[in-house]
């Protein structure tokens, strides 16, 4: 067992000290860019103004013969653009692939000072995090990177789900975790062919003793894993995210999946298509009516203790804390977007 005192020591001489508190950032959508495509790289300066996080994807969906061009393209787009408060992330290839080592060494060597987060796919257990943690510390020391690069795990294997708590607390470098429903479905031998979202056959029927017309109610295939991930992340003080929603022709279902994740505690989701940026922005920003009600609770209980009735509903210390989560998020959104600030009255 690693001793508590050593948990926050840099893992290499000359590497920066790990964050004790994660930087507070708005990360409603992690927008995926295939960096080998020059036409899409050219849109990054515009994108930076629209999204909370720009991610250069090197893993799945990048053709094998474009893996090196994607890595080079990511380095180019990292160098060429000022990201300001927008996050710059990359999703590297899996640790058992022929590309992972060069992804990390070349990217940290070239643009380690600008990179906020490395997304690591197919994490099976804390050993994957420990490996990348050590390697990053060595590279940060070698290239004089001053700000620790964070790790975001994708929860997308059955073994990873079994080990989710150990992954979440594996290192102070952990930023958060995304549910990867496509690989997870494959890993579990689920009988689906979709990238996230529901399935019409995963349902319960109304009781047979009821009326002749039995209602059928579709259930959320991802409820169990999302809940497990949210608890593991919240307990470890890191952020949970819903991952990809692959059916770009069904924005209503995308919205529903994102909303369930938001209500359960997720901070954001991936946007794989420009149309999903606005969906994520809408869903992962709190509803103005909820913000107004939360502000009423905070105002009615200035020290956060006791009990009051507002609009017929009981409020106490626990609802005060929920209200604070909603208002704090509204303040982050308002700081980024003046139109939202006006809607929230902040
Ligand atoms: C994401 O990587 C997924 O597999 O869903
Ligand atoms: Mg995947």
What is shown here, in short?
With 346 residues, this protein is of the alpha/beta class. The protein contains 14 helices and twelve strands.
Strand residues, percent: 5-15%
> CATH fold name of the largest domain, please?
TIM Barrel
Strands, total number: 12
Number of helices: 14
List ligands, each type once.
glyoxylic acid, magnesium ion
Overall 3D geometry? globular
Sheet with the most strands? 8 strands, parallel, barrel
Question: Keywords for this structure?
Answer:
346 residues, alpha/beta, TIM Barrel, 8-stranded parallel β-barrel, two-stranded antiparallel sheet, 12 strands, globular, binds glyoxylic acid, binds magnesium ion
Explain this structure to me?
With 346 residues, this protein is of the alpha/beta class. The strands form three sheets. It has an eight-stranded parallel beta barrel, surrounded by six helices. The mean pLDDT is 96. The longest helix has 20 residues, at 317-336. It has two domains: 4-284, Alpha-Beta Barrel (TIM Barrel), CATH 3.20.20; 290-344. 43% of the residues lie in helices and 15% in strands. Helix 10 (251-264) runs parallel beside helix 11 and helix 12 (288-300) crosses helix 13. The chain is built from 14 helices and twelve strands. Strand 9, helix 10 (251-264) and strand 10 (268-271) form a beta-alpha-beta unit. Residues 60, 121, 154, 156, 180, 182-183 line the site of magnesium ion.
Break the fold down into its secondary structure elements and pairings:
Blueprint: E1 29-33, H1 38-41, H2 44-50, E2 53-57, H3 67-80, E3 87-91, H4 100-111, E4 117-120, H5 126-142, E5 150-155, H6 158-162, H7 164-168, E6 174-179, H8 181-187, E7 203-205, E8 216-218, H9 223-236, E9 239-242, H10 251-264, E10 268-271, H11 275-283, H12 288-300, E11 308-310, E12 313-315, H13 317-336, H14 338-344
Parallel strand pairs: 1-2, 1-10, 2-3, 3-4, 4-5, 5-6, 6-9, 9-10
Antiparallel strand pairs: 7-8, 11-12
Bound molecules: glyoxylic acid and magnesium ion (MG).
Magnesium ion is lined by residues 60, 121, 154, 156, 180, 182-183.
């Amino acid at each position: 067992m690693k001793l508590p005192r050593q948990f926050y020591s840099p893992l290499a001489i000359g590497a920066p000290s790990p964050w004790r508190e994660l930087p507070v950032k708005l990360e409603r959508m992690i927008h995926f860019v295939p960096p080998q495509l020059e036409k899409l790289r050219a849109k990054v300066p515009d994108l930076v103004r629209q999204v909370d996080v720009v991610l250069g994807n090197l893993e799945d969906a990048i053709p094998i013969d474009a893996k090196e061009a994607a890595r080079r393209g990511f380095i180019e787009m990292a160098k060429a653009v000022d990201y300001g408060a927008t996050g710059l992330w990359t999703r590297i290839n899996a640790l058992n692939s022929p590309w992972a080592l060069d992804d990390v060494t070349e990217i940290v060597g070239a643009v380690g000072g600008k990179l906020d987060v490395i997304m690591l796919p197919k994490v099976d257990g804390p050993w994957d995090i420990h490996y990348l943690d050590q390697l990053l510390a060595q590279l940060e020391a070698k290239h004089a990177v001053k700000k620790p690069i964070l790790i975001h795990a994708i929860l997308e294997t059955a073994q990873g789900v079994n080990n989710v708590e150990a992954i979440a607390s594996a290192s102070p470098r952990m930023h958060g975790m995304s549910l990867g429903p496509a690989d997870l479905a494959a890993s579990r031998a689920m009988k689906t062919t979709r990238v996230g979202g529901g399935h019409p056959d995963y349902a319960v029927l109304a009781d047979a003793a009821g009326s002749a017309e039995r209602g059928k109610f579709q259930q959320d295939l991802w409820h169990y894993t999302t809940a497990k991930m949210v608890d593991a992340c919240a307990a470890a003080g890191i952020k949970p995210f819903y991952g990809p929603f692959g059916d770009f022709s069904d924005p209503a279902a995308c919205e529903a999946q994102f909303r369930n994740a938001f209500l359960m505690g997720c901070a954001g989701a991936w946007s794989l298509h420009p149309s999903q940026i606005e969906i994520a922005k809408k869903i992962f920003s709190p509803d103005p009516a909820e913000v107004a009600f939360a502000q009423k609770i905070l105002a009615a209980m200035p020290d956060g203790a006791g009990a009051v009735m507002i609009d017929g509903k009981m409020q106490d210390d626990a609802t005060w804390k929920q209200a604070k989560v909603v208002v704090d998020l509204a303040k982050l959104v308002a700081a980024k977007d003046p139109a939202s600030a006006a809607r929230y009255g902040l």
